[in-house]
Amino acid sequence: MSTTGAATLHRHGLRVHRHPHDGPHRHHEHHDHSHGLVDPSIVRSRDGVKASATSFAVLGATAGAQVAVFALSGSVALLADLIHNFGDALTAIPLAAAFFLRSARGERLAGYAVVLAILVSACAALAETIDRFVHPQRPSHLWVLAAAGAVGFIGNELAARIRLRAGKRLSSPALVADGNHARVDGFVSLGVVASAALVAAGAAIGDPIVGLAITLVILRIVWSSWQTVSADGRSDPSHAHEHR
Fold it and tell me: Nearest Cα to 181, choosing from 53, 84, 60?
């Protein structure tokens, strides 16, 4: 080690550099890569896939339980709800794929797929409701039917919280729209409880009426979800997390 004026030359391996002072000092190495850090886009991708998969499992289990009750009760209100819950669960698939691919464009397309799935479920529920008006049928196992509606509410609320928290954290309008959709679906499921109460009170026509009300609410969800997703499509692309 040698000195020149007030500065001191130090050798570290093959490197020689000058310090304006003598004595202990720190060395800050600069590299072109980081150690122990994960690309934020990868973290976002993993979180998005996890949220989508978890909500899919929750809603799939909810709809599955409702299928068993529908086989017993024959309630068209419950049928409308379980069809919608199945459709809602399936919307998680394109969202998970978009997050896996880390594509902002894929997320927007998945958002449109969500809207389409909701619309299809509304049409299916409407068809069954009209048929029940034409061919009236009194639901049975009313206590079990009411319990199925409660299960639908709980399942949808859990899925809504999972999607909304992840959607806000990841700045994903498609996931937020799907979360709001699930939250409203929870209250739709409470309509099944109302249907059971009306039938128990002697108003058998209450079941298809509630089924129709549920269908109208689903159509309202279609419109609000479309507005959310289409607004994202018109947003500044510089804010998108696109990775091609």
Answer: 84
In a domain, 165, yes or no: yes
Q: What band does 232 get if pLDDT is binned at 50, 70 and 90?
A: low
For residue 242, tell me if it sits in a domain.
Answer: no
**Residue span of the structural domain in which 131 resides:** 40-230
Tens digit of pLDDT for each residue in 114-128? 788 778 777 877 887
Choose among 133, 106, 121: nearest CA to 219. Answer: 121
Stated pTM of the model: 0.65
Query: DSSP string of 125-152?
Result: HHHHHHHHHHS------HHHHHHHHHHH
User: What are the pLDDT digits (tens) for 1-40?
Assistant: 444 445 555 554 445 555 555 555 554 444 444 444 556 8
| 112 domain-assigned | yes
Q: Is residue 185's pLDDT more than 70?
A: yes
Cα–Cα distance measured from residue 198 to residue 207, given in angstroms and rounded to the nearest whole number: 7
DSSP assignment letter at 240: S
CA distances from 152 to 77, 78, 159 (A): 12, 9, 11
Domain assignment present for residue 8? The answer is: no
Determine the 3-state secondary structure of 10 from DSSP. Answer: strand
The CA distance from 93 to 95, in Å, is 5
The strand pairing partners of 18, in sequence order, are 9
Q: Domain total for the chain? A: 1
Alpha-carbon span 45 to 94, nearest angstrom: 13
